[in-house]
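Hello,

I think I submitted the iron/sulfur cluster job twice by accident. Can you confirm which output corresponds to this input? Input:
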Amino acid sequence: MLDGLVELIRTAVVRLPPDVTAALEAALAAEEEELAALQLRLMLENAARAEELGVPLCQDTGVPVFFLRGEWGEVEPLLAEAVRRATEQVPLRPCIVHPLSRENTGDNTGAHVPVVHRIPGGERSVSFMPKGAGSENCSAAAPLPPSAGAGEIAGFVADVVRRAGAKPCPPVVLGVGIGGTLEHAALLSKLALLLPLGTESEEPALAELERRILREVNSLGIGPMGFGGRCTCLGVRVLSAHCHTASLPVAVSLQCWAHRRATLVERDGSWEVVQP
Ligand code: SF4
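Support: Only one job matched these inputs. Its output is below.
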């Protein structure tokens, strides 16, 4: 299991998932601005070279975040050990520091790090999503007025992306969580980032909201790495929960073009790493 977890981390940081590669290729095919097209070409070349050389595709190997589905016992120590080994073996850049002293732990672990979310139900699996600081620093959550509809939610998300500008290394991927409580909306926004690009919600109102946010964000003109052009956002997914009649929490998690994630699934008694 430990070797499988190290391989999960290695795959996530080295290999851009196929759905992201396809989205970048589609954006490049549609791009008319020379500088924007150049950025997209460089991203694709960067990803191809990283995979060829077996090295991380970005120097920021992020905060280690795991999502456990199904029934698991006390696996947190094992996940932390996998992060320590991956830090040495891949290697990962030591990114984790004390929040006040800023002292680096040196092995990408610390209090409550790796971050572990448990998702009840479903088949047993472990997803890993290293979260880079450039995009995470631009994520936001807010209690919107309960009367805010799709228009105001889309406006809130577009405004977060507009204010972020080039900082999250666009084109971004957006995970949006609506409803629940504020921390629940934030978790939903992270879970939305695990969903494959090119898919949409099965709930028509949420699918329409995803398309609306994508339209509004892509009309901002920020473009790849802030160089303008058609593509500021590769995809949007929204997950929702019911909420109190007097509240409407909304959270948006920004992810950069290096939208790294991989999942360890159990198949025929052994563990296999898959990517969307
Ligand atoms: S935001 Fe993403 S692409 Fe930019 S430096 Fe951080 S991890 Fe790398």
